[in-house]
Design goal:
Blueprint lengths: L5 E4 L2 E4 L2 E3 L2 E3 L4 E6 L2 E10 L3 H18 L4 H17 L1 H12 L3 H25 L4 E4 L2 E9 L3 E4 L5 H14 L4 E4 L6 H12 L7 E3 L4 H10 L5 E5 L2 H13 L4 E4 L4 E5 L5 H10 L11 E7 L3 H13 L19 H16 L3 E4 L13 E4 L6 H4 L6 E7 L2 H8 L4 E2 L1 E5 L3 H10 L4 E4 L14 E2 L2 E2 L4 H7 L1 E9 L9
Parallel strand pairs: 9-10, 9-12, 10-11, 12-13, 14-15, 14-20, 15-18, 17-18, 20-21
Antiparallel strand pairs: 1-2, 3-4, 5-6, 7-8, 8-24, 13-23, 16-17, 19-22
Helix pairs in contact: 1-7, 2-4, 2-6, 3-4, 4-5, 9-10
């Protein structure tokens, strides 16, 4: 492969090579990238990085950091706004490539997720530029806290919503003055290559942003073990996070991880039942391949039957089809291996005595799995306690507010929760009692980017969002000056 190698993905030219030091770089090996919309169709053979690729990318990031980290914040912010402008200009191309590569609904991609990518860059550009260093007097001195760029950052992103999640992590790292090496998931790497193009077009200096593709155990492990890396940001599974965390600890590198979820969707009898049923049915839309999804339906006993009937009607209205068709409401699974994993969860639930209320089958000839509802025999059932990451919901009844909170907090996860109630007082009580990084009441997926984001327990460590992300990507320095210090002319 050469630096100019590009493949046609739905009419969009996409480079299959890495971006290192501002140039496209090939590898001797490659891995296949296929479309969930038609698994027989190979989209590309993508450059497969290795330890040598990782070494080269970190070296480029070290070099790039010298220029990018020393640049005035206003100049960095202007460059990031240019990236945002370019994302908006290429919204349709990015949305189509991501739909073909990962399978999410094209409508969602072009109307919401790609636009969020542009917003991420613009938000962090504005926030970094507007930062006012904290200052205060103390014991006859003036204290000032300075943010210093930390150095090269490694960003590792998951296969679901990869473009949006890459921008969510890359933008604050760059805004803080760090150089970045992005390693996207091997199941959906192509939109990250488009992002790499845009950073070059926006005029980021060589090495400020680098892209390395490949298998996690090969190139990802080498990136996270490099002692020159000064920050690691990861979204993915707890199993991989343990490995990355060990590598970060060995080099004393700050590490943040946004991991899995097993969110409760708590429905009280005093809520707008129709709205709650709409929200529950919407959890199926991206085939449940969303860490924030409310997959455990906890319903007050007195409305259990009425709620289930309303949910059934809405579930039966779902359309499983081609994600490019706006009539489709449920996307296919990302990969045959993931489909088999989800199917295994449901098969084991049946065998363990859990009741499959509806669904529970794959669609022949596609990677779709039917929207599924399971009534577990016990709260200890695997289907309740483990993240399935598919279109599989469980339903359990509760008889009191205290029982609802107990069920909500009964897994090792704590990423998100959804509550439906007509009582403001209950919303406050339950919202405070549920152990999760974010709790929505009577809504979902609405969040200001300045708010902290992350999980409790097995759902991760650290927080992203707003100043939390910029502080993570910075080394904080306290400057202390005695009050009697005065400026004197140099001699």
């Amino acid at each position: 492969m050469t630096e100019s190698d590009r493949v046609d993905v739905g009419g969009v030219g996409v480079s299959v090579d890495h971006l290192i030091g501002g140039r496209r770089v090939s590898s001797p090996g490659s891995f296949e990238c296929r479309s969930p919309l038609d698994w027989q169709h190979k989209l590309a053979d993508v450059a497969r990085g290795d330890a040598a690729t990782a070494e080269r990318a970190v070296e480029a990031a070290v070099d790039g950091f010298r220029q990018w980290g020393g640049m005035p914040v206003g100049e960095r912010a202007a460059a990031l706004r240019r990236v945002a402008d370019l994302i908006e200009a290429r919204n349709d191309d990015i949305a189509l490539v991501e739909t073909l590569d990962m399978g999410f609904l094209h409508r969602s991609m072009r109307e919401r997720l790609v636009a969020r990518g542009a917003l991420n860059f613009r938000f962090y550009a504005d926030m970094a530029e507007a930062h006012d260093e904290p200052r205060w007097p103390a014991r006859g001195t003036a204290h000032t806290v300075q943010r210093m760029p930390a150095g090269p950052a490694v960003v590792i992103t998951p296969w679901n919503a990869p473009f949006m999640l890459a921008t969510w992590k890359v933008a604050p790292a760059l805004a803080a003055g760090n150089s970045v090496v992005l390693k996207p998931a091997e199941w959906s790497p192509l939109s990250a290559s488009l992002l790499a193009d845009l950073t070059v077009e926006a005029g980021l200096p060589p090495g400020a942003f680098n892209l390395v593709q490949g298998i996690g155990a090969e190139v990802g492990a080498a990136l996270t073990a490099d002692p020159r890396v000064r920050r690691i940001s990861f979204t993915g599974s707890p199993e991989t996070a343990r490995v990355i965390g060990a590598a970060a600890a060995a080099n004393i590198v700050p590490f943040t991880a946004e991991l899995g979820g097993k969110g409760p969707l708590i429905v009280f009898a005093d809520c707008d039942l129709e709205a709650a049923a709409d929200q529950a049915a919407a959890q199926y839309e991206d085939s449940g391949q969303v860490c924030l999804a409310g997959t455990r339906l906890l319903v007050e006993s007195e409305i259990r039957t009425e709620f289930t009937d309303a949910l059934r009607v809405r579930t039966e209205a779902h359309v499983l089809g081609d994600s490019r068709d706006d009539a489709t409401t449920v996307a296919p699974m990302v990969h045959p291996d993931h489909l088999a994993r989800v199917e295994g969860f449901v098969d084991r639930a049946r065998a363990a005595g859990d009741t499959v209320v509806w669904g529970g089958r794959r669609r022949r000839g596609s990677l779709h799995y039917e929207p599924t509802l399971i009534e577990p025999a016990s709260n200890h059932s695997e289907i309740v306690q483990c993240e399935v990451f598919g279109p599989v919901l469980t339903i359990q009844a509760f008889t009191s507010e205290a029982a609802a909170v107990e069920l909500a907090n009964s897994t090792r996860y704590g990423l998100s929760a959804i509550v439906y109630t007509g009582s403001a007082a209950r919303a406050e009580r339950v919202g405070r009692a549920v152990q999760a990084g974010i709790v929505w009441t009577n809504t979902f997926l609405v969040r200001d980017l300045a708010a902290p984001f992350g999980g409790c327990g097995l759902s991760g460590i650290g927080r992203e969002g707003g100043n939390h992300a910029l502080d993570f990507h910075s080394d904080l320095k306290t400057l202390i000056v005695a009050d009697h210090t005065t400026d004197r002319p140099s001699e």
